[in-house]
Amino acid sequence: MMDNPIKTHRDGGVLEVTLDRPKANAIDLATSRIMGDIFADFRDDPDLRVAIVTGAGSKFFCPGWDLKAAADGDAVDGDYGVGGFGGLQELSDFNKPVICAVNGICCGGGLELALSCDIILAADHATFALPEIRSGTVADAASLKLPKRIPYHIAMEMLLTGRWIDAQEAARWGLINHIYPADVLMQKAREMAQLIASGPPLVNAAIKEIVREAEDMKFQDALKKITGSQFETVKRLYTSEDQLEGAKAFAEKRDPVWKGR
Question: Mean pLDDT throughout 3-7?
Answer without folding.
Answer: 90
